[in-house]
Amino acid sequence: MEGSRLHVALYRPEIPPNTGNIARTCAATGTELHIVGTPGFRTTDRHLKRAGLDYWHSVKISYHKDFAELEK
User: In terms of residue numbers, what domain contains 13?
Assistant: First the structure.
């Protein structure tokens, strides 16, 4: 987890709009977003995309199968 000073890690997020709002906040603050485990929704979910609005291109997002992979 190098790069920006702040990181947000979501473990198996289940609510697309909440995840989208968190992603939007990460984009606005330059914070890296890490999704750990399998989300309870598809990343193409319309509610997820809508909550992220036009910020998705600005979000640095990484996917990890578990916390051990995140720590590498």
Answer: 7-71
Q: Is 20 exposed, middle or buried (0-12, 13-18, 19+ CB in 10 A)?
A: buried
pLDDT by 10s per residue, the chain, length 72: 565 588 999 999 999 889 989 999 999 999 999 999 999 887 777 777 776 667 788 899 999 999 999 998
What whole-number distance in Å separates Cα of residue 20 and Cα of residue 45? 10
Q: Give the span between the Cα atoms of 8 and 37, in whole angstroms.
A: 14
Q: Is residue 54 part of a domain?
A: yes
Does residue 2 fall inside a structural domain? no
Provide the CATH number for the domain around residue 44. 3.40.1280.10
Strands (E), the chain: 7-11, 32-36, 61-64
1 in a structural domain? no
